[in-house]
Each structure stands twice: as C-alpha cells, then as structure tokens.
C-alpha cells in the first residue's frame, strides 16, 4: 500500500474538498523542511499545497501550488519571482485539474506535474 493510499484511508469519510485539504496539510508537514524560500510562499484560503521547485532559470524562485477554485474544481498553478525583484511571487501559469472525481486523482495529477517541473 502506498503512502497516499494509507492517508486516504484516514480521510475517506470526509467530503472531497476536506479530503484534499487534509491530505495537503499532511504533505505540507512532511515537505516543509525542503522549502528554502518560506517567506515567499504563495498563501491564501484556497491554496491547499505549495512545493518549491528547483530553479528553472538562474536567479528565479518557483513554486507549484494546488488551489481550489470552487467546490470540487482544482487548479495547478506556477508562481515565480526573480530573486533580485522587490515584488512578491506572481502566478505565471494556471492549469485545470481535469479529473477531480477523487482526492487521489487530484493529488496524482499534482505529483505528475511536479515531476515534470523537476525534470524527471
């Protein structure tokens, strides 16, 4: 049984949005030590999960986020900031999560996108 499947058994009785939120909270707890630029993390009530990506371009900080747009509708967004810029991070790309039938499918889509950004 995968880690994701084990987590899913713990939240199976919750509504889909609550399942995703709880799973993202647990992933965030595990992955938070890998985030170098914590002060730049995109934040908001509908941003459920944010992971920092390695530099895509020299001097650029990049984050991948899973956001809830509406009940049962999710987006994967890319946020960036040039390190020399005084601005905060800005959303530069947004893609819909097409299959939102289960929390597992939503998180697997996010994981696949993250792998692509990591060059794997």
List the SSEs and their pairings:
Blueprint: H1 3-11, H2 16-31, E1 47-53, E2 60-70, E3 73-82, E4 90-96, H3 103-118
Count of individual beta strands = 4
Element-level helix/strand string: HHEEEEH
Distance between the termini: 23 Å
Tally of structural domains: 1
Sheet of most strands? 4 strands, antiparallel
Overall, the morphology is: globular
Low-pLDDT stretches are none
Helix content: 25-40%
% residues in beta strands: 25-35%
Which secondary-structure class do the elements indicate? alpha+beta
- What is Rg? 14 Å
Give the overall average pLDDT. Answer: 88
Query: How many helix segments?
Result: 3
Lateral arrangement of strands in the main beta sheet: 1-2-3-4
Quick structural summary:
The protein has three helices and four strands. It is α+β, with helices and mostly antiparallel strands and 120 residues long. The chain has one domain.
Describe this structure in words.
The chain is 34% helix and 29% strand. The model has no long low-confidence stretch (mean pLDDT 88). The protein has one domain (3-118). It has 120 residues and is of the alpha+beta class. The longest helix has 16 residues, at 16-31. The radius of gyration is 14 Å and the shape is globular.
List the keywords.
single chain; about 120 residues; alpha+beta; 4-stranded antiparallel sheet; 3 helices; 4 strands
